[in-house]
Amino acid sequence: MSDFEKAAQDAVDAAANSQQLALIAAVLQAQQLTQQPPAPVPAAPSSGSAAKWIGIGIGGSVFLLTVAVAAVAVAISIAGLTICILVLRSVWQDVKPK
Q1: Entry pTM
Q2: Is residue 25 exposed (0-12), middle (13-18) or buried (19+ Cβ within 10 Å)?
């Protein structure tokens, strides 16, 4: 076998290898395209959301406002009762025989 024939045979073998490598690459690429991507991992629910804290703040504010209004109502009631008692005492002093 001469050098020319050997070179020709090597060229034919290289061409066959190139075709086989191209075929293998195409098969691998096709497999990658047909495979389903993994399902996304669901996100863990957040335990400290801002809405929760906003709700707590609003609820606390309403509670404290209710307590303040009730305290004012009690103060007004006490003042009215005191005035009533003083007026009745004064009337009693005027009516009481001496």
Answers
A1: 0.45
A2: exposed
The token duo for 92 is 């009693």
- Give the pair of three-digit tokens for residue 34: 């047909």
- Whole-angstrom CA distances from 80 to 29, 71, 91 are 91, 14, 17
Q: What are the angstrom distances between the C-alpha of 32 and each of 18, 20, 82, 87, 89?
A: 21, 18, 90, 97, 100
- Please, which residues have CB within 8 angstroms of residue 9's CB and are 6 or more apart in sequence? 1
| Alpha-carbon separation of residue 8 from 13, 17, 19 (angstroms) | 9, 14, 17
For residue range 3-53, what is the model confidence (pLDDT) as tens digits?
Answer: 778 777 777 777 777 777 788 888 888 777 777 666 777 777 666 688 889
**Does the CA dihedral 80-82-88-93 come out positive or negative?**
negative
